[in-house]
């Protein structure tokens, strides 16, 4: 794993949270994106080398909606940038980690993603991210 790619924060209201984080971080949201496969709207902020992703559910049966219902607003996941997501998935499986995806899937911000079950990481949902390279 190369570095923390972003920290994901689950929010109830994306619009008001965008305003809050713009004021908090003193920077504009640089991108919003619907990730239909995950039933979430996302908003991204960059401060220095760091990125924050806000996640808001678009469906009551999405994992983010379930997270908000159970835990309330707050840190949802930590994402790590990897060079080769398939190699990293195999490495983690061989180390005994439970992956929530059998194969990488398309995520927000031009990434292929996969999640590691939080029970295997002290209660923290871990996301692997690989930049999609266009040929």
Any overview of this molecule?
It is a single chain. This protein is an alpha+beta fold and about 140 residues long. The protein has a single domain (about 5-130), classed as 2,3-Dihydroxybiphenyl 1,2-Dioxygenase, domain 1. It contains three helices and eight strands. An eight-stranded mixed β-sheet has the order 2-3-4-1-5-8-7-6. β6 and β7 form a beta hairpin.
Shape: globular
The low-pLDDT segments are: none
**What structural category arises from helix and sheet content?**
alpha+beta
Mean of the pLDDT scores?
96
Main beta sheet strand tally, sense and closure: 8 strands, mixed
Q: Which strand order does the major sheet show?
A: 2-3-4-1-5-8-7-6
Name the helicity range: 10-25%
CATH class: Alpha Beta
The H-and-E topology, N to C, reads as: EHEEEHEHEEE
Calculate the terminal CA-CA distance, rounded to whole Å. Answer: 24 Å
| Structural domains: how many | 1
Instruction: Provide a count of the helices.
Output: 3
How much of the residues is beta strand, in percent? 35-45%
What's the CATH topology name? 2,3-Dihydroxybiphenyl 1,2-Dioxygenase, domain 1
EC number: 5.1.99.1
InterPro entries: Glyas_Bleomycin-R_OHBP_Dase, MeMalonyl-CoA_epimerase, MMCE/EMCE_epimerase, VOC_core
Organism: Pedobacter cryotolerans
Protein name: Methylmalonyl-CoA epimerase
């Amino acid at each position: 794993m190369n570095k923390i790619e972003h920290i994901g924060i689950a929010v109830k209201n994306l619009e008001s949270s965008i305003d809050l984080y713009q004021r908090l971080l003193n920077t504009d949201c640089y991108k919003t994106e619907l990730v239909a496969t995950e039933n979430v709207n996302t908003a991204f902020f960059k401060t220095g080398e760091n990125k924050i992703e806000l996640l808001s559910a678009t469906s009551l049966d999405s994992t983010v909606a379930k997270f908000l219902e159970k835990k309330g607003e707050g840190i949802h996941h930590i994402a790590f940038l990897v060079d080769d997501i398939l190699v990293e998935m195999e490495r983690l499986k061989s180390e005994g980690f439970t992956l929530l995806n059998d194969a990488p899937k398309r995520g927000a911000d031009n990434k292929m993603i996969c999640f590691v079950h939080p029970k295997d990481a002290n209660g923290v949902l871990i996301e692997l991210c690989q930049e999609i390279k266009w040929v």
